[in-house]
Design goal:
The protein has 236 residues and is an alpha/beta fold. Helix content is 42%, strand content 20%. The protein is built from 9 helices and 8 strands. A hairpin with a 5-residue loop joins strand 5 and strand 6. The protein starts with a strand and ends in a 5-residue tail after the last helix. 26% of the residues are buried.
Amino acid sequence: MVKFSRSGVEKFLSCKRCFVLYYKHKIYPPSLPFTLNSAVDNLCKNEFDYYRQREQPHPLFLEHGIDAVPFKHPNLDEWRENFKGIRYRDEEHGYNFGGAVDDVWVKPNGELVVSDVKATSKKVFDWEDTWSKNEWPKAYKRQLEMYQWLFRKNGFNVANEAYLVYFNGLKNEPMFEQTLKFELHLVKLECDDSWVEESVVAAANLLKSDEYPEASSKCENCNYLRARWKVSPKTS
């Protein structure tokens, strides 16, 4: 049985060669941890937990007309933990797939609403402009759809809408005073997870095969290596 994560499926969709290198050969570019983003995530989760314990809506819900409260469940801490998360095992296709969610809310009718926390710092935060001009916001939507699929596979009733809780750091304040201020934006996305199962099965089948895929022409890592070898001195 092969085990991989939500981010693995995103790798599979963007470059199948890098996906195989990562999961079968443990080869991947080094990366630095986004510690400030992680701090924002943790602080936001703490705030949701405050209202979760009181079974009250977060003020953000009241401001945006969201009829829900943070979802209480004994497995929430596990669902949030990296390398654990909420998981689904499929014995027929031989995979163990999962992802770590940021937060889950519940409506009065029992439907779960999946949310994810993001942090950035832009002079002007304009989601519609960002969505229309870039591909990476689509990955955020796919991320939420994979989480929705996982919760549905675990027997939960899940709403189609999902939310990005977006914190925009203000970098032009006149004084720092060891305080980073944020604008808070709530981005609602109408999601469709109908593509997820097919992609998860295809990713699992690739890992179980001996196939070594071609590099994607759009993959930054592979394109870097192509360019590097073109300018590298030849050795005998």
